[in-house]
Amino acid sequence: MSQPLIGSLSMDLDNKWAYLRAAGHENWESSSSYFDIAVPRIVELLGELDLPLTVFLVGRDLDVDEDVRTIRMFDQLPSWEAANHSLNHLPWMHTMSDSEIESEIMITHDRIVSTIGTRPVGFRGPGFSCPAEVLRVLIKNQYSYDASIFPTSMAPIARAVFLARTNLKGEQREKAKKLYGGFASMRNPNRPFMRHEEVDGETFPLQEIPVTTLPFLRTPIHFSYVTFLASFSVTVAKMYFSMSLNLCRMTGTSPSLLLHPPDFLGCEDDTDMAYFPGMKLKREEKLSFMRWALGKFAREFDVRTMLDQTQTLATANGFVPQPATT
């Protein structure tokens, strides 16, 4: 019997304020955190299924003691990895200056070290925004991988739906028009690959772990999309997710699946998040679906943290990372 494909499971731990700001709500800064609701459910369910997790942390939340205490609940998991998701979760890093990009990454880096006690080596850009300067900062600071590629055929549609549901105006709306990339995003590989970027006249490699999409069609298979399907029909959502995992196995695609905190919240938990995909489902119905989907993923793949996934793939491909210049 052949060994199961290696996969990884990650979560963008975006707090409520980030979603409300992205949706154009004026009172986003005074919004409450939902970490104390979502994180215990995530830890309980993943612990039940013995699943590891890579958590992309936003630096702004690491400056709030109560949120840090809640985040430390991930210590209860079999294993988890703290990764970098920028300081302010602005999903248009492609509009920032080089110095702003470096601050977004490195302030969060230092906060992860001081609050979690581990050195992050993975990064994901908010809104999957990853200009070349992001890669240069990661290489200079000896990161192992980037995870900002979302090679979906539905990027323009997802962007149009987002803009239609939000109250963004003026400059922010113009910046949001570049979210998720365009159809060009489909040209990116749908499996882990090696990127190369020039730093101080020398080219360095950096592993890229894309957010996996459905092989061939390139439609999303992350859990916010699948729970959105479940809000119309749980049966259809289960068929779609099962087909997605089957196609990953058939094509040898090592899946990296993505979670968000609202994937563990029901419509009765937070009415402010009603616009978010999948938030029409009631709590018990959504948690039941997530237990099924994550359980299936755990049974059919060798699920690792993203760092473990990159190290295993690097060894298999004979790649030895070179130390970056500082």
From TrEMBL:
GO terms for biological process: carbohydrate metabolic process. GO terms for molecular function: hydrolase activity, acting on carbon-nitrogen (but not peptide) bonds. InterPro entries: Glyco_hydro/deAcase_b/a-brl (IPR011330), NODB_dom (IPR002509). Residues 39-144 form the NodB homology domain. This is Polysaccharide deacetylase domain protein. The lineage of its organism: Bacteria, Pseudomonadati, Planctomycetota, Planctomycetia, Pirellulales.
